[in-house]
Amino acid sequence: ADAATLVDLAVLRLKTGDVSNPPARILDMVPAQKISGTTAAKFNTAKGLIALNDGARLDGARQAFDLALKTDRSFAPAAFNRAMVQYLDPNFNFTDAGKSGKLAAEFARISEMPQLDISGRNAAKIMVALIHLRNRDSALAKQTRDFLDKVQKSQVQYWQEASLLKAYARYLSGQAPQAARDLRITLGADPFVTDEHVNDPYLYLEPLGWRALLPMCEEMYRTATGTNVKKDATLEAMFYFCRFKAGEQPEQAVAGGKAAC
Asked: Taking a C-beta distance cutoff of 8 angstroms, is the pair 67, 85 a contact?
């Protein structure tokens, strides 16, 4: 196989969890003299993805994505993943308006890169919203909803996730009735819209998964203000739905949800 095919194979093996031939070993098979141009950008991006997958080795991933961008500045997955490394950094201060604003602006820039397909651009928009929400500045609520509206207008991936995040934005702003309305919309959406679309395998998307979004569902369920809100059937249904989407079986989601209350 040629160099580009081997790199693609390594990434696909990584994404599917196929360990019969470890992705790193496949990359070792790529002849060094064949690693140039876009292939070099993909090769280093693949190394960065392996680093993230292998216990979230952020320093190794950061260096790999930097090398990819040094080779090809227009390789959008490397730019996306490089920004994601910063998002994943446990020392990143999301309440610092300057730092979080700069990171959000970077994802906003990436969301307009024509090299990404519509699902990749939607993923970048979701990241903008997640950064704003982790900043917890109510002044950013409208801007957050605007980005989520753009995702939903595309009618493809992350529609339901965007709807949940809009509800969470309302919740942070103290708008409980509007949050409950958004949750009803979330529950009424096709739960398989995101699952049925093919993602760019070169994008690291774990922070957009339901397991990562589950804490928001839990927070709304546990700490919503007012007894009527906390006992609202929509909020309770959304809580169990989030647990199910995060990978729990239905009976586990209900049992675990009751134990968490």
From this structure: no
pTM, full prediction: 0.89
Mean pLDDT of 187-212: 86
Q: How far apart are CA 158 and CA 151, in angstroms?
A: 7
pLDDT at 227: 45
Predicted confidence at residue 225, as pLDDT, reads: 46
**Residue with structure tokens 């093996």?**
13
∠ CA 250-163-120 to the nearest 5 degrees?
Answer: 100
Model confidence pLDDT, tens digit, residues 14-37: 988 877 788 999 999 999 888 999
86 by Cβ neighbours in 10 Å (0-12 / 13-18 / 19+) ranks as middle
What is the rounded CA–CA span in Å between residue 200 and residue 202? 5
Q: Are 159 and 151 in contact (CB under 8 A)?
A: yes
DSSP label at 156? S
C-alpha–C-alpha distance, residues 127 and 123, integer Å: 6
Hey, what amino acid is at 181? R
The two tokens of residue 131 are 């950064």
